[in-house]
User: What shape does this take?
Amino acid sequence: MQEFDHIQSLWQAHTVEVKISSDEMLKQAKKEVSAIRSKSILNIAGMAISFVAVASLWLFFDFSSWTTHAGITLFLLAIAISVFMLYRSHRLLADNDFTTHPNEFLVSLKLYQISRFNLYNKMYWVYAIGLSLGIVLYFFEILAYFDSWLQYLIIFLTFGWMIFCSTLVRRAVMKKEKERIALLIEKFERLREQFSSH
Assistant: This one.
């Protein structure tokens, strides 16, 4: 523990002055915010396309079981809630401009960070449970058309994929996004300090 404290004190004593202009930092920060906004729009568009694709099942297929209709409805409900949450998060960054309202933008960026944390932790499980129940209900009728070995394979692959996405993929995306937003908040706080000192 003493070695760690010693290394930490050396590290803190050894500060390197980074010579980066506020204009360059602002340009980098704006580029990162633009990338986050673009990714957010793509996420919303992808979920909206998924909603339309799942809803179109009712147009092209004549389902006889109520469980299939209930499954599709749950599926659509889970997707609609996710689109709404993604849109709310997106509005936090889309409504503010750092150059005109730096303090408001910083507050919005911190709210966006909390919103994304809630989306990946709380809302993700609502989404995953909604999808899982929807799939189970949908499979009651659909799997009857397949041989038993194919039924097991479809169930295994479907829920295996959902577990993979719920664990490894979700954690990796959460970690990357958390670091990216925290770094962006730090940049905007430094920018705010630079602007206020001038």
